[in-house]
C-alpha cells in the first residue's frame, strides 16, 4: 500500500473530488480526517467508505468562509489522529455571475476566503507542524483557472492563481525541510458543482467540444493524481501543477 500508516486531512471531502481522494487514500492505507462545510450526510457517507478499508476516520465540520476556522480545523485534525502527514486543500466555491463586475463585494470576499485565505491558513498550520516531523505533503486543488481566465470568474480566478503562487513560493521554502507541496488543476470534472451544466444535454455537448478528449473528467481521475503526489512515487516533485483537464489548457494550440 502506498500510504500505509499515513494520516491525511482532506477538506471538502463530503462529495466529488474530495470524497474520491479520501476513499482512494484509505484504500492505500491512510487514515483520513473528513472535513465538510454543510453536508453532514455526505461526510458520513465518505467516512463509511473510509472505514470499510479498515482505516481510522474522523469527521470535522468547519465553515471555511472564516479563515480562523481553518486554523482550528487543523488543530482538531491533529488532536483526532495525532499528526497529519498529508494535507489536501480541496474545498472550494465560486461566484454565480455572468460578468465579473456584477460580483457583490461580500461574495468576492467569500470566494477569496474559501478558495485562497483558508487554504493558506491550512498550509501555514501544516507546514509549521510538518517541520517538526521533518517531512510532509501538501496538495492544493486549484483549477485550470489558475492559468486561464473565465468570464464571470474574477474572484475564483484570482483565488486559484494566488494559490498557485503560494504553492510555488512555499515549495522553495519548505523543500530543504523535507516538505513537498504541489497543485492539481482540474478541468471540467463531473461533480455536484458541475451537475447542473452536465445534466443539460446542450450545455454538456458544448462543454465537451472545448475539451480535446471530448468528455468531462471523473473525480477518481483527480484522486489518482492526488495519490501520486501523496506517495513516494513523486518524491522528486515539488512546486509544480499537474493539469488534469483532458487537454483543455492546450486548446490554444488548436486555434
SSE topology sketch:
Elements: E1 7-10, H1 16-27, E2 31-36, H2 40-52, E3 57-61, H3 67-81, E4 86-89, H4 105-133, E5 136-141, H5 154-174, E6 179-186, H6 195-199, H7 201-209, H8 219-230, E7 241-244
Parallel strand pairs: 1-2, 1-4, 2-3, 4-5, 5-6, 6-7
Describe this structure in a few short sentences.
By secondary structure, the chain is of the alpha/beta class.
Structural overview:
This protein is an alpha/beta fold and 255 residues long. It has one domain: Rossmann fold. The chain is 45% helix and 15% strand. The protein has 8 helices and 7 strands, in the order βαβαβαβαβαβαααβ. A 7-stranded parallel β-sheet has the order 3-2-1-4-5-6-7, with helices on both faces. Helix 1 crosses helix 8 and helix 4 runs parallel beside helix 5 (154-174).
The helix fraction, in percent, is: 40-55%
The CATH H-level superfamily is NAD(P)-binding Rossmann-like Domain
CATH domain topology = Rossmann fold
Q: What percentage of the residues does DSSP assign to strands (E)?
A: 5-15%
Low-confidence region ranges: none
Can you tell me the overall shape?
A: globular
Supply the CATH class.
Alpha Beta
**Average of the residue pLDDT scores:** 95
Give keywords.
255 residues; alpha/beta; Rossmann fold; seven-stranded parallel β-sheet; 7 strands; 45% helix; 15% strand
Amino acid at each position: 500500500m502506498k500510504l500505509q500508516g499515513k494520516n491525511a486531512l482532506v477538506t471538502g471531502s463530503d462529495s466529488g473530488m474530495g470524497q474520491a481522494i479520501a476513499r482512494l487514500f484509505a484504500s492505500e492505507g491512510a487514515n483520513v480526517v473528513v472535513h465538510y462545510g454543510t453536508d453532514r450526510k455526505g461526510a458520513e457517507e465518505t467516512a463509511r467508505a473510509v472505514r470499510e478499508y479498515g482505516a481510522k476516520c474522523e469527521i470535522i465540520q468547519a465553515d471555511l468562509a472564516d479563515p480562523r476556522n481553518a486554523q482550528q480545523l487543523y488543530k482538531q485534525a491533529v488532536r483526532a489522529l495525532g499528526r497529519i502527514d498529508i494535507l489536501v486543500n480541496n474545498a472550494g466555491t465560486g461566484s454565480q455571475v455572468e460578468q465579473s463586475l456584477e460580483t457583490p463585494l461580500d461574495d468576492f470576499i467569500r470566494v477569496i476566503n474559501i478558495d485562497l485565505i483558508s487554504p493558506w491558513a491550512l498550509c501555514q498550520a501544516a507546514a509549521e507542524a510538518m517541520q517538526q516531523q521533518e517531512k510532509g505533503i501538501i496538495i492544493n486543488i486549484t483549477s485550470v483557472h489558475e492559468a486561464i481566465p473565465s468570464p464571470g470568474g474574477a474572484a475564483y480566478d484570482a483565488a486559484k492563481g494566488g494559490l498557485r503562487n503560494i504553492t510555488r513560493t512555499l515549495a522553495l521554502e519548505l523543500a530543504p525541510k523535507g516538505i513537498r507541496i504541489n497543485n492539481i488543476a482540474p478541468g471540467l470534472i463531473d461533480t455536484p458543482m458541475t451537475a447542473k451544466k452536465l445534466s443539460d444535454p446542450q450545455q454538456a455537448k458544448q462543454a465537451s467540444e472545448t475539451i480535446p478528449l471530448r468528455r468531462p473528467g471523473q473525480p477518481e481521475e483527480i484522486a489518482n493524481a492526488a495519490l501520486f503526489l501523496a506517495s513516494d512515487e513523486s518524491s522528486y516533485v515539488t512546486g509544480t501543477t499537474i493539469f488534469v483537464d483532458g487537454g483543455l489548457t492546450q486548446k490554444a494550440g488548436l486555434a
